[in-house]
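Per reviewer request, we include the raw input and output of the structure prediction for the construct analysed in the revised manuscript.
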Amino acid sequence: MQNIVLSIHYGHNATVGLSIDGEIVCLISEERLNRIKNSYGYPARALEYVVNKYLGADKSLITKVILNDYDMVFANDLQFWGYDPKTVDEVFPIHYKNRQSFLNKYLKYKNGFSKTKRGLKIAFKKFVRKHFLQGRFIKRVNKKLTFPFIVTREKLIKIIADKIGVPAEKILPFDHHSAHLLAAMYFVDANKKRLCLSLDGAGDWASAKVAIWDGKLNIISATSQNASVGSLYYCVTGFLGMKGLEHEFKVMGMAPYAKEEQIERVKKVFETMIYLDEKGEFKSPMPSEDYFNYITDKLSFERFDNISGAIQKFTEEIMMQWIRFWIEKTGVSDITVGGGVMMNVKAVKRVYEMPEVSSLFVTPSAG
């Protein structure tokens, strides 16, 4: 019996892959079919194409369906699958499996606030900021204060299974960064010990992971998504009036036009935002959702080329510092890299030129 694995990436650059007995037979992004660049969300057309073309529309042949994140917890994940919670009884606030526990904590917290609608909104916002990673989950939609929720994993898997049309027991969520790290092993000699690094905006609460490959993947370090080089570059892209997760290459392209002394001056702003600690993990004095406001405060009226040059050089230098640390720590100098930040070809070129690096493989697409 053949081992047929369907892989679905439902974030930006939504993509479907199919492997049969370990051999990749198809990879297709949704944008190729719906003609929307960097298409985001559930890749319905790509999924239909792959199943019809390679499986004769018979989904019962599928052994497993792999998803691109292990912690599929946000409301927008549900919306990717065409599901929109209608009542609070259908969902549970994040970190609170017991809904009543959450409500009791909130009712105690809001004492002292006005019982007007506005007062309760302020209380709720402050409560969420205190208890839920400083307000990461607060959104404003149509001028209404909203709060993304999670459902139980079992219910979410059932929703996805119904959407795809396969049994729930065949659905397997997979760690985001492990997917980035393992992707390279299709292209290199898997019998050789390697240092594997993933650097991304965020995925499964991490922005970076380090692993050793010695026939299997062993994660040895992880950096929180609250100290994200990828998110910082993304915020700079947006600050410069471009589209994040798409136009970062334009920022990279503008970088050489700045003068070196201006680059060094502006780069000091970014150096206060993210640094490498003694454990080889990125740290930040602020959560990543505050990056944009901090940049706005510090760099308004600064020339675009100076900002571009500074963020590019900062990214190159901190990436090299990070990789050098882990080569020295592990003694392994044959490396593979993956994740969105590793699509920055100028930064990776500098990594390739590092004397500490014996060999380098860059996963050709982070999607």
